[in-house]
Amino acid sequence: MAAPVCKSADYKLTSLDDIESNTAYLGDASEKNWVSSGVPVAYNDEAVLLTMAPDTVGTLLMSTHYVWYGKMSATMTTSQGQGVVTAFIMMSDVKDEIDFEFVGVDLESAQSNYYWQGVTDYDNGKALTTSNTVSEAHTYTIDWQPDYISWAIDGKVGRTVQKKDTYNSTDNKYHFPQTPSRVQLSLWPAGLPSNGNGTITWAGGLIDWDSQYMQNGYYYAQVKEVSVECYDPPSDTTKTGDEAYYYLNSEGLEQSVAIGNNNTILGSMLADGENPDFKPKSKTSGGSKPTSTPETVPGISGGGSQQIGGQQAGNGGSGSGNSPSGSAPADSSPTQVGGTTSFEQGNGSMSEASTVYAGSAVALLGFFVAALML
């Protein structure tokens, strides 16, 4: 599906007014600037909390507008505890990724990382030193240029990666993030027993759902402000309009991206880029709802195979990438964040065609078994 073009703005995240649930958002970026899964909570008119209660995989906040090169900053505090990871990243629909990640047992480190098309090259990460990420709000900045990426904390650049240094001689391509991406902020449980041992070790151990660092029944991180400064697209970009990014081919490279006036809005939660106007016919037999919903929000999954939304933690949710002490809000109003709206990623249920095909196969197999027994 085509994606809404970049929008330079300074977003003060003081309420939920500009946030829409991913169970309702269909791609109209003119209505809301952020999409959420899980349970974001407004806190004291000064921040939005990313919450993570037991048996959930946390909360994700995603920009509705994409960025194709730009400077993105997030002023925030992180969560704390073993197995708990806070993240501020850029994620494209072809799994290009630029990360700031914060492991809950390391309060004075911000991990920088990047991926190209979801290739898990673990040599791309580097830790940047800072002061306490839980008790102190810092501004983390990703400056993404066509020829380099830099990571800065409170205005001080801690790392720069040049595109020229990412050339891969095996496939003759630059393994450098280069496709339109969404700003994503998340809190997720890397320390689930169902995750890989490497991820659990990286996250500091198994998550403790009875931790002293939980408040009102959940872990939390605070996001106060996000700013986006859009850069001009590459000079050789194919342009037939100015409203949406779309792909000319399946290579997923910078030269694959064009800008036009393509539709970005889906007709329903069951529509997709190949059939964007699809609207299922209403059923008259009791009005039962489907037990699972396919993923329909572009860019919701990334190189780190994030599983997000109100799914149960036992489903093995994980965050992006290789894959902290502070006082909790004293007067945060919510007392419970359980019972979130379920949103399962992937095609959780077969289509009618698949069901008929599977049924036919079973019937055919039964026929051959019966024939052999005669």
TrEMBL record:
Bias type Gly residues, positions: 300-320
GO cellular component terms, A-Z: fungal-type cell wall
GO MF term list: glycosyltransferase activity; hydrolase activity, hydrolyzing O-glycosyl compounds
Biased segments, Polar residues type: 335-350
Domain GH16: 9-218
Region (Disordered): 270-350
Keyword Signal: yes
CDD domains in the cross-refs: GH16_fungal_CRH1_transglycosylase
Ranges of biased composition (kind: Low complexity): 283-294, 321-334
SUPFAM superfamilies in the record: Concanavalin A-like lectins/glucanases
GO terms (BP aspect): carbohydrate metabolic process; fungal-type cell wall organization
Record's protein name: Glycosidase CRH2
Organism: Saxophila tyrrhenica
Lineage of the organism: Eukaryota, Fungi, Dikarya, Ascomycota, Pezizomycotina
Gene that encodes it: UTR2
